[in-house]
Amino acid sequence: MGIQADSPWALLLLAPLLVYIWRMARHTPRLQGTRKLAVIATRALILLLLVALIAGVAPYRTLEQRNVVFLADRSASMKDQDAVGEWIAEAWRNKSEGDYGGILSAGLHAVVDRALSEKPLPNERQYEFRTELNDQFTDLSKGLQLGSALLREKGGGRIVLLSDGSENAGDALRGARLLKDAGIAVDVVELASALERDAAIDELQVPTALKQGETFSFQLNIQSTFTGEAEIRLFEDDRPVTTASVHLEAGENRFALQGIAKDSGFHRFRAELFAAGDEQSANNEAFAFSRVSGPPIVLIVEGVPGSSGNIEAALSASLIGHETISPEQLSVELAAYAAYDSIILHNVPATRIAEKPMEWLAKAVGDYGVGLVMLGGEDSYGLGGYFKTPVERALPVYMDLQGRKQIPSLGLVLVIDRSGSMADGKLELAKEAAMRTVELLRDVDTVGVVAFDSTPWWVVEPTPLTNRDEVLQKIQGIQAEGGTEIYMALDAGFKGLLEIDAQRKHMILLTDGQSSTSMNYKTITDAMNENLMTLSTVAVGEGSDQALLQRLANDGKGRYYFTRDQSTLPAIFSRETVLMSRTYIVDGTIAPSVGDAGNWSALFDSGVPRLQAYVATTPKEMAEVALWSPDGDPLLARWTYGAGRSVAWTSDMIGKWAPEWVQWNRFPEALTEWVKWTFPQFDGSPYRISAAMDGGSGKLIVETTGDQYETGSVSGLAAALEEEEGEAAAKRLMPVAPGRYEAQLGEMEPGAYLTQIGSLSAAEGGSAIREGTTAGFVIPYSPEYRIGNQEGSELLAQIASVTGGRKLSVEEAEEAFRFEPVKLKVPYDWSRELLVIALLLWLIDIALRRLSLPWARIAAAVALPFHSLRRTASPNPNARQRADSIGRIKQRTAEKSKFYGQESKHEPPASPKTATTTRSCNAAASVTSPNRTKSGADAVNRQPARAFNEPPSQRTPKRQDAVANEKKDRKPSSGGKPQEDAAQAATINRLLAAKNKTKR
After folding, report:
1. What is the DSSP string of 253-269?
2. pLDDT tens, residue by residue, 128-186
3. How much is the pLDDT for 192?
4. Segment 650-696, tens digit of pLDDT
5. For 30-39, 256-265, 465-474, 485-494, which range has the lowest pLDDT when averaged over its residues?
6. Phi, psi for residue 864 in degrees, rounded to 5
7. Cα distance between residue 147 and residue 104, in whole Å
8. Beta strand 110-117 with 57-65: parallel, antiparallel or unpaired?
9. Where are the beta strands (DSSP E) in 666-738?
10. Whole-angstrom Cα distance, residue 652 to residue 671?
11. pLDDT value of residue 943
């Protein structure tokens, strides 16, 4: 036993309580003696009880008891429920008398199967569960929460969890942390859930968007616990498609079955698995859906006419339509690109693609979902001048070689014509080309810029690129004016190169006109050759001196470029810079290694052909690299760019760099898979649809690709499921985040579902979809039937570790109740009793203060039994002496009373004189001495209480005796009237008797 206080701080109220009692004792003049003490004690006791109630003071007793709640996982994954019941019964038989046990069942929800009790089980061999629950999901957290509530009612204990740990709803680990805070440990018993012979279709994958006539693969992932033969059956809209016999190995099995998209529209696909001896049929189905649109068409843009035969043959074999054009035929209208499902750039240099087509290519991929495939060659990637172009932004690789240290240093001088003929945008594009070249160079490279008209001048003196921004700012300040003098500008550039210390030195000359003088340029080109310098020239437009510029490029051992489209100047400069500053072509015998190939992994199961060369690039951060070179360069990469997809193949397709690839028997299939991967993944739908299971209920998730919310007659977004037996009622989609909506679908059978997503029309009562978009989603079978969940054992171990519990084996049922009992404080709630006592004391307090009762006699009567008990318990040796004294006092009192009583009886009649004298004295006292009357009253008040308690018949004679004695002592008065004096004396006696009676 003990005393505890829930709120000890409230005991501080005792300090002001003591002050209050002290002031009450000092400042209560109305109450005196025992009555005052009783009031103070009662008031103090009331306040003390109230403080105890506020502080939660209560007695408690300490108990030592073992309370165990058995939490049985009864989900579908627990195949042997009898083993669970036997384990519980065995543990129950080994509990001690006084121990309590309870049983809970957990599935999607948790229920109490048997409340905490010390009684034995009806069946001591096996406990038979009596409750029903949803066994399609496992939510252990709800069971732990319910078990905690039961144990708290008994003051604590332990939970024994019997499960396989295959949780698929709730968060058991979070629930375990809450139990730790409550001081409740969880012991775990791991029970096997896997069947000896179980095969399941884990996943069926089909492209969500297909083209009519397109061949595709049914990708199946099958898990099995045994080795044996099986049969796979595929259905399209409940129509058989194909059947295949397969051999299953224990573990994971992957299969790919071919199909052809024949009819347009949405289609549901179902796969069924039949294996001999399979003990579980609920996991033998999987579902998928796809939308088939019109036949696909691919645009091939080839840099070398007639070089795309291998590509065309591969596409034709897969029934994919195609068109082949040259780069110059690319449309300047964006709408023209949306007509294709994918565009292939086959060894096309950027210098042959105009500015607008370059922009539309990137926009068609990012905004309209058109696919893009770049195939390598000597004029592609960095060699083709794609650095800092819109096409580079859409591809999964960078054109420059980032992080390469073996690249030789470069000294570059740009000689740019700034004559008046370079106006009308030519000079602006030339400056853009120069700035892009500066960005392409490294900090260790040196650059100089000469602008010329009739005379040359250095815009940027040859300097290392330590301050790149300053160089770009100076180039931006070039203005067009003056004539054209090429020789002097070329000579200035040559002299500037002589001062540069670099491993490679190169000059680029750009002009759109003809020199005003005829000079011997051979002397400059010969001097450049002697100093290992090279010269490339760029002629812009028909008015340029093409013959001179071509001769200079040939003599300078560089390249000559002619362009009518000034928008290609940045690409030309980039290409030229790349060719001079870096070694982009990597050659030799190259053995690719497989990386993140995704669904392309099956293409390389039998090996990957070798290469002879490729163009080096740098993969972007979010790109998936399917094939790597030994040097860490990407050979095959893909990624998603905006709404579309793009693929980069850095070797060629004509057999010069990849002869083994074009001869590979899977080459047509591989190329077709790359191209089809880039096909649009949507049909312009403004919604992205997905589904998930949320605690046993299906949840539809809709994400908008733009601002789809409308006002007016539209009340919001909704979804209507299209089922075989008809269209279900529309379900309103609730916004949960910007652009994200959800709807609860309730319990749904596994399958592929189609739905209409759109706005509810208020004109039709708010129940019809207006302008809906058809989409699909899949509800898989319950996760309870999945094979190979290896996380269950780890979860159970974490639960035991977090709560401080034990991990018991199947053979240790007797250990369930073998733990140190917890000493629990069980408080007794006496607040009601204290309130009743306080109320009674309050009533007593009121009575003591307000009622005029003989409190002294009451107190004496109350104390008399205690005095008697005390005298009996402990006799006083002076008791006899005190008794004798009291007896003598009583005897004297009796003698005195007797004496006065006898004197009154024999008193002679008063003489007239005496009466007159008495009357005179009384009158004088009453008239001249008011204080005397008061003293007389005080004298009367000071008489013993015993006198007041006597009846008037006993008191009056005594007063008469006193008066008679007084008359006897006085001398008789002469001339009085005896009868009158006697009457006055009698009157006075009656008044005194009445006064005494009133005071009593």
Report:
1. EEEEEEEE--S-EEEEE
2. 888 888 888 888 999 999 999 998 887 788 999 999 888 888 889 999 999 888 889 99
3. 77
4. 999 998 999 999 999 999 999 999 999 998 876 556 777 878 777 66
5. 30-39
6. -60, -45
7. 7
8. unpaired
9. 687-694, 697-704, 714-723, 726-727, 731-732, 734-737
10. 12
11. 43
Is the distance from CB of 31 to CB of 42 less than 8 angstroms? no
For 283, phi and psi rounded to 5 degrees? -110, 25
Its CATH class, for the domain covering 297-399+584-677, is alpha beta
Contact present, 583 and 445 (Cβ < 8 Å): no
Say which CATH superfamily domain 199-293 falls into.
Answer: Immunoglobulins (2.60.40.10)
pLDDT for the residue 31: 72
Backbone CA torsion sign across 80, 85, 88, 90:
negative
pLDDT over 90 at 425, yes or no:
no
The CATH architecture one would assign to domain 410-581 is 3-Layer(aba) Sandwich (3.40)
- Ordered strands of the 239-248 beta sheet: 209-211, 285-293, 265-275, 228-236, 239-248
Q: Is 215 left (phi over 0), alpha (psi -120 to 50) or beta?
A: beta
d(CA 378, CA 613) in angstroms, rounded, equals 10
Strand partners, 220: 204, 255
Domain residue spans in the chain? 2-62+830-860, 67-193+789-820, 199-293, 297-399+584-677, 410-581, 687-776, 907-999
921 pLDDT exceeds 60? no
CB 448 within 8 A of CB 413: yes
Instruction: Quick: pLDDT tens for 591-627.
Output: 999 999 888 988 898 889 999 999 999 999 999 999 9
- In the chain, % helix, strand, coil (3-state, to 5) comes to 40, 30, 35
In terms of residues, how long is the chain? Answer: 1000
E strand or H helix at 371, and its extent? strand 371-375
- Residue 403 burial (C-beta neighbours within 10 Å; 0-12, 13-18, 19+): exposed
More confident residue, 340 or 921: 340
pLDDT score recorded for residue 161: 93
Q: How far is CA 881 from the centre of its chain?
A: 92
Rounded CA-CA distance 717/677 in Å is: 31
Q: Which of 239-253, 414-428, 475-489, 983-997 has the lowest mean pLDDT?
A: 983-997
**Residue 604 per-residue DSSP state:** G
User: Do 67-193+789-820 and 687-776 come out as alike in CATH topology?
Assistant: no
pTM of the model: 0.51
HSE on the CB side for 975, CA within 13 Å? 0
- The class of domain 67-193+789-820 in CATH terms is alpha beta
pLDDT, mean over the chain? 81
CB 752 within 8 A of CB 289: yes
8 A C-beta contact, residue 198 and residue 280 = yes
The set of residues, in sequence order, having a beta carbon less than 8 Å from that of 234 and lying 6+ positions away, is 218, 240, 241, 242, 243, 257, 259, 269, 270, 271, 272
Residue 908, classified by CB atoms within 10 Å of its CB into exposed (0-12), middle (13-18) or buried (19+), is exposed
> Which residues are CB-contacts of 691 (< 8 A; sequence separation ≥ 6)?
698, 699, 700, 701, 745, 753, 777, 778, 779
Percent of the chain with pLDDT over 90: 32
Q: Report the pLDDT value the prediction gives residue 656, as an integer from 0 to 100.
A: 92
In a 3-state reduction of DSSP, which class is residue 14? helix
